Amino acid sequence: MNKAFQHIVSLSMAFMVLLSTMSFTVDKHFCGSHLVDKAVFSKAKTCGMQMSADAESHCCTNEKVSVEGQDELKISFDSFDFHEQLFITTFSFAYLNLFESLPKQIIPFKDYSPPLLVSDIQLEDQVFLI
């Protein structure tokens, strides 16, 4: 239960950071006071009225709303001093070496079956370890 809660919280925080840093534009086209089209990330379609440029400027209007995201989350590695850079490199090197696999062991006799026992040699020779 605790792991599931931790995963949910971490995913929600990641989405919060993503949404707070993302910027987008909403474009709206009005014909008079009537909203004709609204578009996100693209240009809104016009109402299709074939009028001159002067008449269209009085009748139709375009409204563009831009939502800017945060720009403060960018970290530059130039601002780290030598000790911080050394810590980051040694930590990443040690972390990546945790996942090294062991060398594959070669067993030359794994495809061969053991010999058949005809009789128990310890009972025939009557040699018992006490």
Furnish the topology, listing elements before pairings.
Layout: H1 2-21, E1 24-31, E2 34-40, H2 53-59, E3 60-67, H3 82-97, H4 121-125
Antiparallel strand pairs: 1-2, 1-3
Q: What features would you describe in this structure?
A:
With 130 residues, this protein is α+β, with helices and mostly antiparallel strands. It is built from 4 helices and 3 strands, in the order αββαβαα. It has a 3-stranded antiparallel sheet. A hairpin with a 2-residue loop joins strand 1 and strand 2. The longest helix is centred in the N-terminal third of the chain and has 20 residues, at 2-21. The mean pLDDT is 81.
Give a short summary of the structure.
The chain is an alpha+beta fold and 130 residues long. It has helices at residues 2-21, 53-59, 82-97, 121-125, and strands spanning 24-31, 34-40, 60-67. The two termini are 55 Å apart.
